[in-house]
Amino acid sequence: MTNKVYKGIGSSEGISVAKVFILKEEKIVIVDAKSKDPKAEIAKYESAMAKTKDDLVKLKATTLEKLGAEKAEIFEAHLSILEDPAIGEGILDLINNSQYSASKAIHEVTGNFVTMFEAMDDDYFRERAADVKDISERLLKHALGLKIIDLAAINEEVVIVADDLTPSQTAQLNPKLVKGFACNVGGRTSHAAIMARSLEIPAVLGLKDILHSVKEKDIVAMDGLTGEIEINPKDKKVWEKKAAAFATQKQELKKFINAPTVTKDGFKDFILAANIGSPNDVENVLSHGGEAIGLFRSEFLYMDNSNWPTEEEQFTSYKKVVDLMKGKPTIIRTLDIGGDKKLSYFEFPHEENPFLGYRAIRFTMDRKEIFRTQLRALLRASAFGPLGIMFPMIATVDEFKAAKAFTLECKAELEKEGVKVGKDLEIGMMIEIPAAAVIADKFAKYADFFSVGTNDLIQYTMAADRMSEKVSYLYQPYLPSILNLLKLTIDGAHKHGKWVGMCGEMAGEPEAVPLLMGLGLDEFSMSATSIPRARSIMSKLTLKETQELAAKALECETSEEVLNLVRKTIK
C-alpha cells in the first residue's frame, strides 16, 4: 500500500488512525432539454420540496437529541433557506416561463445563491455556500429520484474521505465509529467543521485532491489540529504517541474552561471573548468559558431575511444575546454589508473594486433610514446589560465622530419617547484600515474602545487579497509591519485610557496569543472552542516574558524570525 502525506486545514482537533471510508455519491446530471409539461415539472418540484422538508425536520430532531438546541438551529436555518420566497418564486418562474425542467430550475436558482456566497471574502459568509449546496443537492436528488447515502448506517471504525461533507451528513455521524473525516474542500468556519468540533470528531478540510488518491483498503492517520494526513502511515507508533499526548492535553484543557484568566505571575486583566453570528451561538460561548462577546456579526439578520429587518426583529435578537450573557459584555458590530456581502433585496451600485468602495459605515451613514432602525434596536437592547456598539470600516476621525453623533441623536430620540437606554453603553470602532491604526491615538479621544479586525487589516496593509493563491504568501499575521501597526493601535488607545480588543482570526492563534499579551491587547475574541487553549497558554507565561517577546518581535525583519521567537518562548 502506497504511503502519502497531505497537509490541509485543521478544522476539528483530534488524532485518529482508521481504515478509509470513501464517500462517493451518484452524480447529479442536469439535462438541458426543455420541458413540454410545466404542470408535471411543478408537481415534481413540489414533491422534492415536501421530501426535503421532511428530511430536514428529522435531521433537526436528531441533531437536537445528539448536540443540543444550538446545533439543531442549523437545520432550522436550512428550512428557512428552503422556504425562501426568492428561491421558490425563481424556480417556478423558470418552469412556467422558460420551460425548464424541475431539476434544471432548482440547479439554476440555487446555483446563483451559491455563487454569490462563494464570492465573499469573509470565511464565515463564504462557507454559507455549503448550506445552500446541501439543500440544493437534497432537492435535486429527490427531484431526480437518486439515492441519498445514510452515513448513520456505518458499523465499523472509519475515517470518511470525501469531496465535501454537508451539515446534514455530519449530523448523521456516530463519533464512536466515525473517527474523523478528510475533505477536498471546506475550512474551519464551515457548518460541517463546527458540528465536527461539537461531536469531537477530528476533521481536516481543504485537501484539494485527497478523494482521488485513496483506495478502500487504505489506512488513514490524521491530526485535526495541524491538518496533517498520512495515508498508510509508515510508523503507527508515532501516531499512537501523538494520540496519547492529545488525550492528556484535552483533559488538561477542560480544567481551563471555568478557570480564571490569569498569567503565571498573577496578571488578571486579559479578557477572553468569542465571535458569534447569531443568538444561537451564545450557548457555545458560555460552555467554553467565554467572558464576553467580542463580535456579534449583525449582518446575519439582514442576509437571512427577505427584506430589511425591522427595529423589533433586531431588538429581539440583540436583547436575546444580552440576556443570555447575564451581565457579561456584548459587542455588536453595526451592519457590515457591501463588498462581498450582498442582499437579495437590495442592489449595490457596480464598482470596479467593491471591497474598497460603498460598504459598511460608508453605506449606513449614506442610508440613514436603514442605520437609524438598527441603532434604535441596539440602544434599546443596551438597557438589558452591558453592550458596545462598534462601527466597521472607519477610515477618518470625522467619519467616526459623525457616526457617533448620529448614534447619540438616536439615543436622545428614544429617551424623549421615554424608552430606557443602558448606562453601560460604549461606542467604539473596528481598526481594519491601516490609516486608522496609524493615528489610533487621535481616534481614542472619541472612541470608547477599539477592536482590531486582523483579516482586513493584514490584506489592506499588504495590498494582498487573502483569497488569492498567487499572493497568499504576503498574507502573514506575524509580519513585523503588522505587529508595529498593532502596537500603534494599542498604545494609542491606552494613552487615553481606552481598551483594545481583537476579533480577527489572529486572536485565537496559539502562536499569536503570547505576542498579543506582550503588546498589551486587552480583549481576545475568537472561536469559542479556542478559549480554553488560549487561557491555558496565558497561565504558563509571565507578563514580563511576553513583553520581552513582543519587544524582540518588533525588531525582527521577517515573520519566520517572529515565529521562531514565539516557539522558543512557548517551549
Description of the structure:
- It is a single chain.
- The protein has 571 residues and is of the alpha/beta class.
- It has helices at residues 38-67, 69-82, 85-98, 102-118, 123-126, 129-144, 167-170, 191-199, 236-254, 282-287, 299-303, 311-325, 360-364, 368-381, 397-416, 434-438, 440-443, 454-462, 480-494, 513-519, 531-539, 543-554, 559-570, and strands spanning 4-7, 9-12, 15-22, 158-162, 178-183, 203-205, 219-223, 228-231, 271-276, 293-297, 330-333, 387-391, 426-431, 449-452, 499-502, 523-526.
- The protein has three domains: 4-24 and 149-235, Glucose Oxidase, domain 1 (3-Layer(bba) Sandwich); 38-144, Orthogonal Bundle (Enzyme I, Chain A, domain 2), CATH 1.10.274; 271-570, Alpha-Beta Barrel (TIM Barrel).
- The protein is built from 23 helices and 16 strands.
- An eight-stranded mixed sheet has the order 1-8-7-3-4-5-6-2. Strands 9-10-11-12-13-14-15-16 form an eight-stranded parallel barrel, surrounded by five helices.
- Helix 15 links the parallel strand 12 and strand 13 (426-431).
- Helix 1 runs antiparallel to helix 2 (69-82) and helix 4 packs antiparallel against helix 6.
- The longest helix is centred in the first third of the chain and has 30 residues, at 38-67.
Keywords:
571 residues; alpha/beta; Enzyme I, Chain A, domain 2; 3 domains; eight-stranded parallel β-barrel; 23 helices; 13% strand; globular
